[in-house]
Design brief:
Helices cover 37% and strands 16% of the residues. It has 453 residues and is α/β, with parallel strands linked by helices. The protein has an eleven-stranded mixed sheet, covered by helices on one side. Strand 15 (373-374) and strand 16 (378-379) form a beta hairpin. Helix 2 packs across helix 3, helix 4 (124-136) packs parallel to helix 5 (157-174) and helix 10 (297-314) packs parallel to helix 14. The longest helix is centred in the C-terminal third of the chain and has 25 residues, at 428-452. The protein is globular and about 75 Å long.
Length: 453
Amino acid sequence: MKIHKFKFNDKYIILDINSSYVYDVDKLVYDILDYYETLDSKDIVKKLSNEYKSEDIIEGISEIDELKAEGLLFTKEEKVNKRIYQQGIVKAMCLHVSHDCNLACRYCFAGGGDFHMQREVMDIKTAKKALDFLIENSAGYKNLEVDFFGGEPLLNFDVVKEAVEYGRKREKETGKNFRFTLTTNAVLLDDEIIKYLNENMYNVVLSLDGRKEINDYTRPTRNGKGSYDVIIDNIIKTAKERDRLKKDYYIRGTYTAYNPDFYEDIKHFSDIGLKNLSIEAVVAKEGEEYALTNEHLPKLLDSYDKLTKLYLERKGTDKEFNFFHFNIDIDGNKCEYKRVSGCGSGCEYIAVTPKGDIYPCHQFVGDEKFIMGNLDDGIVNNDLRDEFYALTLDNMEKCKNCFAKYFCGGGCHANSYNFTGRLDDVYDVGCELLRKRIECSLYIKCVQKEQEA
């Protein structure tokens, strides 16, 4: 499988899978490609002569021949930059400074913030040790990423501040550069904290699931009341300040079985002036009432269609927004999205608990089968680490013939494990959603190119 062709609204789009070159073609070329690799020119003309003139068909075939000869279509697989994570090197860490939370989200994979363990927060000694571990295991990487995570990390804000101060000190000593991020439910945000985050955080992730009725149902407070009115002013203020300062942030929503019409939630974000937006499918165990199934797919796919239309309609207006998952690299750019080994969980990316235990990623924390080691002894479960290193597209059978494989590298291993019991399988519903999102993104790129021409 070397190309993927699809029609989206009025456009006929071709993706060269191995290079990610994208073409907005006419219907004739689109139809020729059904037969191009299996029939010769004469037979293609016969197949299509009832609909097109022979000379037009021959001209279309010639155009395809030229692209192929120039290495721009039907490219071979070796053109893809197969970037495999290097053994023993870590460059990103999810630092669980708090295993406690002040919300009680219905779909929380972390068991309400404690990750099915005891409620606790990280001490500064462990936080410093974690930063030292990252430095010592980062080899030649200069830019290191640390996400202060929970639970709710602002429940342990003093340790966050001390860890940042220590990180800045270690930067001067080692030549490394920490890119600190904090993920928060926004309940505890105030002017002082917002100011601190704007001065010290490379990125801020603000959790909000959408419309008031959706957010209040999925993200209640500990006393069972809705959280929307508690957090919305804090979120808007933080976002607008970071917009003004040109600092990174994004709204991070989760769609579940409760809101397959999540397009309405992104629309709500945009309507209230939020600019950098994200909403992702829930990571769920099979059988949970909030889990997404095949029954939800029609509404979910329709939501992506509507979101694509909204995104383009609002481009260039005061309601313009950036949707994180529409940002993809195409036209042969061998950047981070051309990968065969996914998100890097268990390889270049790890999660560290308040006790200093090391897991492949935050989604696995609490399941003792996935403890890789600890900050004192390092990563000692080499069999588990090798298993994550082996999660490349070459070893994932269901991915081999998927047109979107180089945009996801095999998908979320936690979702695969939750639904199939295997790390090297896939979560089929998630794959359908990813493929739809990629088609939406490619369509947007084609429309924007046409507008710029």
